[in-house]
Design goal:
Layout: E1 5-8, E2 11-13, E3 21-22, E4 24-28, E5 31-36, H1 38-41, E6 50-53, E7 58-61, E8 63-68, H2 70-79, E9 81-82, H3 92-104, E10 112-117, H4 130-134, E11 142-146, E12 151-154, H5 156-162, E13 174-178, E14 185-191, H6 192-197, H7 207-223, E15 226-233, H8 235-246, E16 253-259, H9 263-269, E17 280-288, H10 318-329, E18 335-339, H11 342-358, E19 367-370, H12 376-385, E20 388-392, H13 395-398, H14 400-412, H15 418-423, E21 429-431, H16 441-450, H17 467-473, H18 476-481, E22 499-502, E23 519-524, E24 527-531
Parallel strand pairs: 1-6, 2-7, 8-15, 9-10, 10-11, 15-16, 16-17, 17-18, 18-19, 19-20, 20-21
Antiparallel strand pairs: 1-4, 2-3, 4-5, 7-22, 11-12, 12-14, 13-14, 22-23, 23-24
Length: 532
């Protein structure tokens, strides 16, 4: 049988069960026909076969980001001000200037919003207060979110429009930052407190904004070697995925967890895990337990070292979480839980132990998204329950320097615990959680392997893993999280031909250079979706 595509003379890292490395690969009808030596594959070359000479370059399976918010970010780029370090923001004054410019082209009374603010990247090493946001505009409600997404800051106009005063109590599952002496709200909003302030804010992007934003960011994902992302979605993002797919413009594959508040509508329609195809599929429901690691608000059992008596923020109560998850689980839905800190993880495991006892099922594959702060007891419970953790990939590198003062070196040995989970034979994967961290997958592999921060400081070195292990977290293990291990995640005959050509040998170069490896080409179903 003549192949449609043949790749020859390379180093093909198959990520099969033997971790074999081959020279050549053939593709037919979008699937891998054969893998082997170049001499073995050459007979499948026919007159119409496209041939790519790898010339010694490395071919790996398509990379998979097992948790992110790409669809939301794509639209947000069109709607809100980018306040990240990468956008040139380095101080509170920079934030004020950027928001002031946006306010000048926004009708008075309309919202001015920003995202990806990061206090650790600001000269002041703190978030702006509501009064500092007032300096950007007093005529517009202003709200900005942090890089972690679970903490925001608002100006006085936003508080006024929401009717929130000094005497307004904290909501269930949320918290207002207050001046410790006066009790006055200083502008900081945790979890559900954000929703109180956002009352009356724009409901979201238009259909066109969701479409165009998603298309652009997913093209950028392809250029970085990502052939699939596993996204958290609400109605606008689901519609954008389907619009792109139906128009033949979906750049890469999508897997989706719907927000659990969509459960009643989905259940009414009989929609649950598995709806879709190889390009786009619904996998489960997402529930939030606690805050963010990057914002240092994850719910932990020991206080943050730089915030005495602060244990993070729970985004729910045990009663609400139990009722919400049980209602969905009894109907067959898979649960992906945002549970960062050990306090939140323990609550999630308690509930899933009860859920699995009441409504047992084979191969449930419920997930703990982030699963950041653990201990030996939690790790054992996760294995026994069959929970699938997906941990932050780039965080050690990108956020590591601000985590040391918050957690200390000792506790960081039990964070993003790839080594611990692999040693327990837990099918762990890794993710970017973008916009909470940058999404280049090679930055994630760099972080998982080297466990050093941007400044070169060691971050939990006992959790280092090998390059091959890190690659599995972004390929075959990630495919397992979406029930795709039989068709994606490795380069084996019969699997879909999702592949990435790298310009350096991932397995042999110094590990410190992994982050800088150029991506030469990305293919999905054997078709080129990006070339350098």
């Amino acid at each position: 049988m003549n192949a449609d595509l043949v790749l020859l003379n390379g180093k093909i890292v198959t990520v099969d069960s033997q971790e074999s490395v081959q020279e050549a690969l053939a593709v037919k009808f979008g699937r891998i026909l054969a893998v082997g030596d170049s001499d073995d594959i050459k007979p499948s070359i026919g007159p119409d076969t496209e041939v790519i000479d790898l010339a010694g370059r490395t071919l790996i399976p398509g990379l998979i980001d097992s948790h992110c918010h790409m669809m939301m970010v794509g639209a947000n780029r069109l709607l809100t001000e980018d306040l990240s370090e990468e956008a040139g923001i380095g101080s509170i004054k920079d934030i004020q200037d950027a928001l002031r410019l946006r306010a000048e082209r926004t009708p008075k009374g309309d919202w001015v919003t920003g995202f990806q603010e990061d206090d650790s990247k600001l000269a002041e090493k703190r978030h702006p207060t509501r009064w500092e946001l007032d300096a950007a505009s007093k005529d517009h409600p202003v709200i900005i979110s942090t890089v972690g997404g679970h903490f925001s800051m608002a100006n006085s106009k936003a508080f006024e429009m929401a009717g929130v005063t000094k005497d307004t109590p904290d909501p269930v599952g949320g918290k207002f930052d207050r001046d410790p002496e006066t009790g006055e709200k200083t502008g900081g909003l945790h979890e559900q407190a954000i929703q109180m302030i956002m009352t009356g804010a724009p409901v979201g992007p238009t259909r066109e904004q969701s479409y165009e934003g998603a298309k652009q960011i997913l093209k950028e994902c392809a250029a970085l070697g990502l052939t699939m992302v596993y996204d958290t979605v609400h109605q606008p993002q689901i519609r954008a995925v389907l619009d792109l797919k139906n128009n033949g413009e979906l750049p890469i594959r999508m897997r989706m967890d719907a927000a659990i508040d969509l459960f009643p509508e989905l259940h009414k329609l009989g929609i649950y895990r598995g709806l879709g195809d190889d390009w786009a599929r619904l996998c489960g429901l997402k529930f939030f337990f606690d805050g963010a690691i990057s914002a240092r608000t994850a719910a932990v059992t020991e206080p943050y070292l730089d915030k005495p008596d602060f244990y993070g923020v729970m985004a729910t109560t045990r009663e609400i979480a139990t009722e919400t998850i049980m209602n969905a689980y009894m109907e067959g839905y898979r649960i992906s839980a945002h549970a960062n800190g050990d306090q939140a993880i323990a609550m999630f495991l308690d509930i899933m132990e009860e859920a699995q006892a009441k409504y047992p099922r084979e191969d449930p594959r419920n997930r703990d998204i982030h699963c950041s702060v653990i201990n030996p007891d939690l790790a054992g419970r996760i294995k026994n329950l069959g929970i699938l953790p997906t941990i932050f990939g780039p965080y050690v590198y990108y956020h590591g320097d601000k985590l040391i003062p918050a957690f200390g070196e000792k506790r960081l040995e039990w964070m993003f615990a790839a080594r611990t989970f692999l040693d327990l034979d837990v099918m762990i994967s890794a993710h970017s959680d973008h916009p909470c961290a940058p999404y280049p997958p090679l930055m994630a592999l760099h972080g998982l392997v080297n466990r050093t921060s941007k400044a070169g400081r060691p971050i939990g070195q006992s959790q280092k893993i090998s390059v091959m292990e890190a690659l599995k977290l972004y390929t075959i293990n990630a495919a397992y999280h979406s029930f795709d291990e039989d068709r994606l995640g490795s380069l084996e005959p019969g699997k879909l031909a999702d592949m990435v050509i790298l310009d350096a040998d991932l397995l042999s170069i110094p590990t410190e250079e992994i982050i800088d490896i150029p991506v030469d080409m990305t293919l999905i179903d054997g078709e080129v979706v990006y070339t350098k």
